[in-house]
Design a protein that fits this description.
The complex is a heterodimer of chains A (136) and B (139).
Chain A (H helix, E strand, L loop, with lengths): L5 E5 L10 E5 L1 H10 L1 H5 L1 H9 L3 E4 L9 E5 L3 E5 L2 E4 L4 E7 L5 E8 L11 H4 L2 E5 L3
Antiparallel strand pairs in A: 1-2, 3-4, 3-9, 4-7, 5-6, 7-8
Chain B lengths: L20 E3 L4 E5 L5 E5 L4 E6 L5 E7 L1 H8 L1 H4 E7 L1 E7 H10 L5 H13 L6 E4 L8
Antiparallel strand pairs in B: 1-2, 2-5, 3-4, 4-5, 6-7, 7-8
Helix pairs in contact in B: 3-4
The chains are: A alpha+beta (136), B alpha+beta (139).
Chain lengths: 136, 139
């Protein structure tokens, strides 16, 4: 067994046109999901997809914790039960939350905003700011 | 099923019930009663409820900013016991934590309902969590 964190190249939120930086899926979180939340473990595939193909990047995700990032995207598929993979619904987005050290700590589906289907609902009020959007 | 890209990072069989757990990377407590895909419904800056993508029922929650809540109320005001197991752990009442979080925001009917339903439906089955003060960054 590889006893390391998983590293994923991502757009540098502070310099989107510059070299990529590493996001980290902590090994302990991988094991936690694998052991106790197998559906979350399977949906780390969706997490990887979103980190590689973000549609929006938000900063300032917490009221009590400085910084933090939310990468938002839409995977093609996701798991709703351990062995049940289904198309990802159009009215949802998949959000991946990271702390300021780029450590992933939460990944989940959320309702999409009515004014921007690539953002979570109420995105205008809940984040510090939108720092990057995919224009392609 | 396509091979999982993290298969080399895990071993052994999955299984078991974790109960509520503290996530130090996100300074949050996570509790999920059913292993299904979840849709997060953010109630406020502190509380997010997990709704099952299968049944539409509420099956868990996330409490954010745990260290800030504890800093505000102090360990003496929020812990309900100790547990010694090599390192000191403090046993926290999730109901107390949610009540403390509720006090911090606007007292709207919608918020109140969400907190009450979370306590009634989810917390009462697993009312406590053990935290290690040494792994928390308290203000």
């Amino acid at each position: 067994m590889v006893d390391n964190n998983y590293m994923q190249d991502i757009i540098d939120p502070n310099n989107p046109r510059g070299p990529k930086v590493k996001a980290i899926i902590p090994h302990w979180l991988i094991l936690k999901y694998y052991k106790f939340h197998p559906v979350r473990y399977e949906n780390l595939r969706a997490t990887k997809h979103v980190l590689e193909n973000p549609l929006r990047i938000f900063t300032g995700v917490r009221i009590y914790n400085e910084g933090g990032l939310c990468f938002v995207g839409r995977p093609n598929q996701w798991y709703i039960r351990e062995a049940t993979q289904v198309p990802f619904p159009q009215d949802l987005i998949f959000a991946v939350y990271m702390n300021p050290r780029f450590h992933v700590y939460e990944c989940r589906a959320e309702h999409a905003a009515s004014d921007d289907p690539s953002s979570p609902e109420n995105w205008q009020n809940r984040y510090g700011g939108l720092i990057w959007r995919n224009t392609s | 099923m396509e091979e999982h890209f993290l298969k080399d990072f895990v071993s052994g069989p999955p299984g078991g019930d974790s109960g509520p757990w503290y996530n130090p990377e996100g300074d949050c407590i996570i509790y999920q009663t059913v292993d299904e895909g979840v849709i997060a419904n953010r109630i406020d800056e502190i509380l997010t409820i997990y709704t099952s993508a299968v049944s539409g029922k509420d099956i868990g929650f996330q409490i954010k900013g745990v260290a800030a809540i504890i800093s505000r109320f102090g360990w003496d005001g929020i812990h309900v016991g100790f547990k010694e197991n090599e390192k000191e752990l403090k046993s926290i009442s999730l109901t107390f934590l949610l009540l403390a979080a509720y006090e911090n925001g606007p007292r709207t009917i919608g918020r109140r309902m969400a907190y009450v339903e979370t306590i009634d439906n989810l917390v009462l089955n697993s009312p406590r969590i053990s935290l290690n003060p040494n792994e928390m960054v308290l203000a």
